[in-house]
Amino acid sequence: MCMEKTPWEKSVEFHGHSCPGLAVGYRVAGLALRKLNEYRAADEELIAIVENDACGVDAIMLLTGCTLGKGNLIYRDHGKQVYTFGSRNSNRALRISVNGAVLHRQDPVAAGLRKKVFGGTATAEETKKYYDYQASRTDQILNMPEEDFCVAEEIAFKMPDKARIFNSVQCGSCGEYVMESRARVKDGQPVCIPCSDNYSRGW
Length: 203
Fold this sequence. Notes:
The protein is an alpha+beta fold. It folds into 2 domains: 7-154, CATH 3.30.1330.130; 165-203, Wheat Germ Agglutinin (Isolectin 2), domain 1, CATH 3.30.60.20. 36% of the residues lie in helices and 19% in strands. A 5-stranded mixed β-sheet has the order 2-1-3-4-5. A two-stranded antiparallel ribbon has the order 6-7. Strands 8-9 form a two-stranded antiparallel ribbon. The longest helix is centred in the middle third of the chain and has 20 residues, at 124-143.
């Protein structure tokens, strides 16, 4: 008998493997959908602002339907486990800040094993120990009480504009087409960013 995969199993399949980082995004996505009383977005009904590009973002995309392609996933390179979700249906927004002390609590033995595993020097037994430890951390994140996992609070929030479709122009250097809003001007003609010879003096 063919059994329907659980949301967690679908997240693991989409990401490629199970890990603590994926568990973080899974918990965040579930909290956002539940607290905003929302479902997976077919279009831009729900928006997500993620402040990192770590594993958990894959679970957020899969479960909430917020993706780069639809324009309702906004990435801010802050390196923080902080996520903001906005519902256009209810005009409500939720900010979730994950408890860093929980995420970054590292067993010194596990840290040594990680170095060996990713350095290619771990024995089969050490590799198994490391992945057993990771599985235990993943299970802990998936099952810990919400108040230990994060701070989730409704906030005042201005919804970003919906995604726009721009005209394209032909780059005067390479001949490829570029979104008009991303084109630069070089020698009086539009060029793409890679052909623009960006000039910077450190600011």
